[in-house]
Here is the input.
Amino acid sequence: MATRTRSGKTNGSLREVDGQHPTPEVKQTDENIFLFVPNLIGYARVVLAVISLYYMPLHPRRCSFLYSISCLLDALDGAAARKYQQSTRFGAVLDMVTDRCTTTCLLVFLSTAKPRFSIIFQLLISLDFTSHYMHMYATLAMGGSDSSHKQIDAKRSWIMHLYYSNRNVLFVCCALNELFFIGLYLLCFSSPLITPSLLQPVPGSLQPGSPAAPDTTTSPWSAAAMEMARANKMDSSIPWIICAVSTPVMLFKQFVNVLQIVKASKWLAEGDRKERAKLGLPKKSL
Here is the structure.
């Protein structure tokens, strides 16, 4: 029989704490979580996203390519985690933070490129952060520390259950949502309907920061100036097709975000009522 030591541990495989029944003691492994394959893919996503942000103001093709690769790797890290049995909380948080930050950075650029519609992009950013934060907090607070934000009971919401439990649905929704904003970003450089300055007005009427305005601080033979000349000749057909195909999915994604807020709020309120009932609140005044 194992005996208890002063530290509360035992010299056997059992541990007794505060007079409770002995429980099996789980030894920590020496694995380096930060070097797991899916986490390495996550770091690559971050690097690609940062580089795409660098090219975002002047190099739409290069930016879109790098940004798209970063988004597509989101599916690869999940597959790697399942294949190598390396699913971790750190990896899940890294994945979520990367998704939120990259989308936010793209929406910030769109809000600066189209100031008239900046409030829409700001609301989309707020909706995205609010829904995911409340959903994650409600899952941890009500479901326990071992629960996952992707484990949704169908009785609570069949739409969210389908969204999180079906990998194909989750991938299509996330991919086409990002694709919509990439298409909108490309239209800022190619469509006169979105950016009227692409109609090549007289030089004196160009506004600073406009996609059509040349970079006067660099040589006309610089890479930036040459890319701008190419950008003004971009065909807007493909970006329009991208936006048209992905718009329904993008709207559904925003609906899911709203639904997450509603369900998380109700779940937290349910927990608050149980906690208040346990504490005997409200107490009757004498």
